[in-house]
Amino acid sequence: MATERAFLDVTPEQGASFFGTPDQGPVVMLNLLRFRETADYSHAPDLRPADAISGAQAYARYMSEMRPLLEASGGAVLFSGTGAPFLIGPQDEYWDHVLLVRQASKAAFLAFASDPEAQRITAHRTAAISDSRLLPIHAD
């Protein structure tokens, strides 16, 4: 499925809106990911593998390197799985991977995402995905 606009990173406006509201404690991030057929490392040639890899393989590298940093920050992967066609939703929309990640708070998430090593590792995610959605979820 082709989309008119891909969403790969948070915009300054979305970041300001999210971090500019009161911290409500733990937050779970719902990640919907669509992978590139071949990972694109043009933005990070120093991380490019010697042989071409798929977007799914690049994302697996991202998760392998990122998980220890996530867990050290107090975060956790709650669920990771393969997407399937919607039961309720657009029949032509699909997501390759679904991920639920818990962070203790917005502040913990910001500290984690601002870590220079996490930012370096994120280049694998950028190489991997062609489109994504990230929805913060707070408990009622």
Helix and strand element order: HEHEEHHE
The global form is globular
Q: What percentage of residues falls in helices of 4 or more residues?
A: 25-40%
- Number of DSSP helical runs: 4
- Low-confidence sequence ranges: none
CATH topology (level 3) name: Alpha-Beta Plaits
Describe the structure.
It is a single chain. By secondary structure, the protein is of the alpha+beta class. It has a single domain (25-86, 93-137), classed as Alpha-Beta Plaits (2-Layer Sandwich), CATH 3.30.70. The protein has helices spanning 12-19, 55-72, 106-114, 116-128, and strands at residues 27-35, 76-82, 97-103, 129-137. Strands 2-3-1-4 form a 4-stranded antiparallel sheet. The termini are far apart. The relative contact order is 0.30. The model has no long low-confidence stretch (mean pLDDT 91).
Question: Can you give keywords for this protein?
Answer:
single chain; 140 residues; alpha+beta; Alpha-Beta Plaits; 4 helices; 4 strands; 34% helix
Q: How do you describe this structure in short?
A:
The protein has 140 residues and is of the alpha+beta class.
Spell out the blueprint of helices and strands.
Elements: H1 12-19, E1 27-35, H2 55-72, E2 76-82, E3 97-103, H3 106-114, H4 116-128, E4 129-137
Antiparallel strand pairs: 1-3, 1-4, 2-3
